[in-house]
Design a protein that fits this description.
With 305 residues, the chain is an alpha/beta fold. The protein has a domain at 132-255: Ribonuclease H-like superfamily/Ribonuclease H (Nucleotidyltransferase, domain 5, 2-Layer Sandwich). 38% of the residues lie in helices and 15% in strands.
Length: 305
């Protein structure tokens, strides 16, 4: 199934009831027809609108179980509205904005919903970056006391950025919080997000020295040829600059370190789909991920580090 609304009016008509939302999630989960996860039988009946009961072994599988909607007490219509609103916000979404749109009494509820939806912004089956890829680290956080520069900067979160180049312009990106600038952290990030054999371009930091031995073509940018830092890895530094501007403009910079990765995931989701003219397709993709992502409780979100 790849059918989705193109406008808000179409969205309202398409999902006017809870059953409409349930049917859509059913198609996303079992587009080729329901198959019992226990015995493989294909015949079933519906109980309480959400439970598919296998006619062979009587095993019950819920449309919502194992998704971000599991155990929700709110209408699916509200969840769908939240996802539509989030995907149609060009520059990002805030918990306060979501609270106003849905008329939620609790800011905590809006905050939890937004973070749960952010978990669905990472496709577990997404393809790794390939071709020519610029890689570098950067810092997110307030101004360092004393202006201490370099990779030893304290009181800031260290992130790593990879930018896939297409026609010498930024294509897809990946961003992650890393523990430190050691070779283990840097090479580990590259292995997780960049296909082996790709051409990886970095600066001369020693932490990247094992990239060639790890199966990558490695080019070290000659720092002596650059008049400033941005000339060395221009596409990475452009992404870092845009990211910082987005965090400041959308979230006023009020992002806690332990939740930073969730905001980075949202930024990557938006950046990689920045040229999409079909906002309804973003809604579809996010819902498609939402039924394949394990549920996260509010307690887990609060404790997450």
């Amino acid at each position: 199934m790849k059918e989705f609304p193109m406008t808000f009016d179409e969205f309202v008509r398409r999902f006017s009831t809870e059953q409409d939302c349930l049917d859509y999630l059913f198609e996303l989960r079992w587009g080729n027809g329901f198959v019992c996860p226990k015995c493989g039988h294909a015949e079933y009946w519906i109980v309480n609108r959400v439970l598919c009961t296998c006619k062979e072994c009587r095993h019950q599988a819920s449309v919502l179980a194992g998704t971000i909607f599991q155990d929700t007490r709110k209408p699916l219509k509200s969840w769908f509205t939240a996802i539509w609103w989030i995907t149609t916000q060009k520059y990002g979404a805030s918990a306060q904005g979501l609270q106003q749109i849905l008329g939620l009494k609790s800011y905590q509820t809006a905050w939890a919903w937004l973070h749960k939806i952010r978990t669905a912004m990472v496709n577990p089956d997404r393809a790794k970056l390939s071709g020519r890829v610029e890689v570098d680290e950067g810092y997110i956080g307030g101004k360092e006391e004393g202006g201490k520069p370099g990779r030893g900067t304290r009181n800031k979160a260290l992130i790593m950025i990879a930018v896939e180049l297409k026609d010498n312009a930024p294509g897809r990106i990946r961003i992650a919080v890393i523990e430190d600038a050691s070779g283990k952290s840097l090479i580990g990030f590259v292995k997780e997000h960049v296909s082996p054999g790709s051409h990886v371009v970095t600066d001369g930091w020693i932490g990247y020295s094992d990239l060639a031995a790890s199966g990558y073509q490695h080019t070290v940018y000659n720092q002596s040829q650059a008049t400033n830092e941005d000339e060395m890895l221009p596409h990475v530094h452009l992404v870092i600059s845009l990211l910082k501007r987005w965090l400041l403009g959308t979230h006023q910079g009020a992002v806690r370190a332990k939740h930073l990765q969730a905001y980075l995931d949202e930024y990557v989701f938006r950046f990689n789909r920045r040229t999409s003219a079909k906002r309804g397709l973003l809604f579809y993709r996010l819902l498609e991920n939402a039924v394949n992502i394990s549920p996260t409780t509010y307690g887990e979100l609060v404790r997450k580090t």
